[in-house]
Design goal:
Blueprint lengths: L31 H9 L4 E6 L5 H11 L3 E9 L4 H13 L3 E2 L1
Parallel strand pairs: 1-2, 2-3
C-alpha cells in the first residue's frame, strides 16, 4: 500500500477506518493488498457502495463474484451518472446472483 502522499477525499465523507486501499484501475481487486487483507481476515461477503455504479462499482462487483465472494450492493449508496446504462448493469448483476438492496 502506498503511503507516500496524503489522500484527498470528498468533502463531508466520514472515514471510519485508517485502512485505505488505492487502485489504478476500475476494479478494487487489482490491488493485491486488498485481496491479501480480505483473505487474511477471512472475508466471505462484501457489500459495495460507490460513486458510479456503471464504472468502478460495476467492475469491482463483478470481480468480487469471480473471486467467489458473496456480493451485495446498497443502491441507496451508489451513484449513477447514466441511468439507462445502469439498467443493463443491474440486469448483469441480477444474472450473477448479486444481492441488490
Amino acid at each position: 500500500m502506498r503511503k507516500d502522499r496524503k489522500k484527498k477525499f470528498a468533502t463531508g465523507l466520514l472515514l471510519v477506518s485508517s485502512r485505505i486501499f488505492e487502485k489504478r484501475r476500475a476494479s478494487c481487486f487489482t490491488n493485491p493488498d486488498l485481496k491479501d487483507f480480505l483473505e487474511e481476515n477471512g472475508a466471505k461477503s462484501i457489500e459495495f457502495i460507490g460513486v458510479d455504479g456503471n464504472g468502478c462499482v460495476r467492475a469491482s462487483v463483478l470481480a468480487a463474484t469471480k473471486e467467489n465472494y458473496q456480493v451485495s450492493v446498497d443502491l441507496f449508496a451508489v451513484g449513477v451518472a447514466n441511468q439507462k446504462k445502469f439498467t443493463k448493469t443491474l440486469k448483469q448483476w441480477q444474472d450473477c446472483g448479486i444481492k441488490i438492496g
